[in-house]
Task: inverse folding
């Protein structure tokens, strides 16, 4: 039994929402099409999500398609590397890259969707919190640091390299990025 | 005398290109409209830039609107802080934020524009290179580091915080980000 309540076939609804977003874009995303694609009555959809934005926010945040496994490998370095690999995979895999790109290109033009983005990333950060909690308990992370700043660096670098600079997120790049986030670029004499 | 050659009123042409991109988006950006707005004959524009993409690439790379001053403050930390402030300003100021957002939302959907993005960021990186060269000469930066990785972290974190997470790039955030890039998040016992 899941703790969070939702309609039957919830994951199919979320997947249909994200796939239609990827193919048609936000403007042409229609709750009716989600109903057809997921085989769920549209009144059911409206009962759970009163608007397109509400459905989209729920799909982005809760769909298994975009979820990441929160690692617990025993060290901060290998935990962050596992997260970095998953972010890079979401941004490049054939199934998820078009969804991420569509969501990315929608949000900055639509202030009303900023709340969706905020919800999504706040949820991500809350799920990733145990990584940092355990790192503090192991004495691996400087006290007083905001874990969101660490994730901004790590996720930001991967986004920037892949989607803006048009580069690749090779294993060497991901490892170097995690090392930089942990050790910094300063020469330690 | 400028070394780079270009038509008269080049900056007006670039500004018109970027402002029209911001207002109308890539699809409706037309060389004819750039000609009208900048008061330059459209045959002149076609002579210098044979396509819309060529004009857009030149405008993004060379317009003063999006340029950043490469600082030389005497330390890597204050140089990076100066760059970070300029990136945050470009992403938030009333005049430039719509241009950046328009460019951002276009690029991932149009593979043919990936080359424009690559050109833009390669040019940025080449200009920023002296910051890192001087840091190496002062012994401030670990040898063997790729400056692009440092800039991915710094710029990526600011983009991520502002445009994806929907947060703010406060002075404290920028300072913390630069410190993290330089010192890393690891607890140094």
Result:
């Amino acid at each position: 039994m899941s703790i969070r309540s939702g309609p039957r076939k919830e994951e199919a609804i979320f997947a249909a929402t994200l796939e239609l977003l990827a193919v048609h874009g936000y403007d042409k995303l229609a709750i009716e099409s989600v109903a057809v694609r997921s085989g769920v009555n549209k009144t059911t959809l409206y009962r759970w999500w009163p608007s397109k934005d509400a459905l989209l926010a729920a799909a982005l945040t809760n769909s298994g398609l975009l979820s990441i496994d929160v690692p617990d490998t025993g060290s901060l370095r290998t935990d962050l590397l596992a997260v970095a690999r998953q972010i890079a995979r979401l941004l490049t895999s054939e199934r998820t890259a078009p969804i991420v790109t569509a969501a990315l290109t929608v949000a900055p033009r639509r202030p009303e969707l900023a709340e969706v983005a905020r919800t999504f990333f706040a949820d991500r950060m809350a799920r990733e919190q145990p990584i940092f909690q355990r790192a503090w308990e192991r004495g691996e992370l400087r006290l007083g640091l905001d874990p969101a700043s660490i994730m901004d660096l790590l996720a930001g670098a991967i986004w920037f390299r892949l989607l803006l600079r048009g580069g690749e997120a090779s294993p060497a790049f991901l490892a170097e990025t995690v090392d930089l986030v942990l050790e910094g670029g300063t020469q330690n004499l």
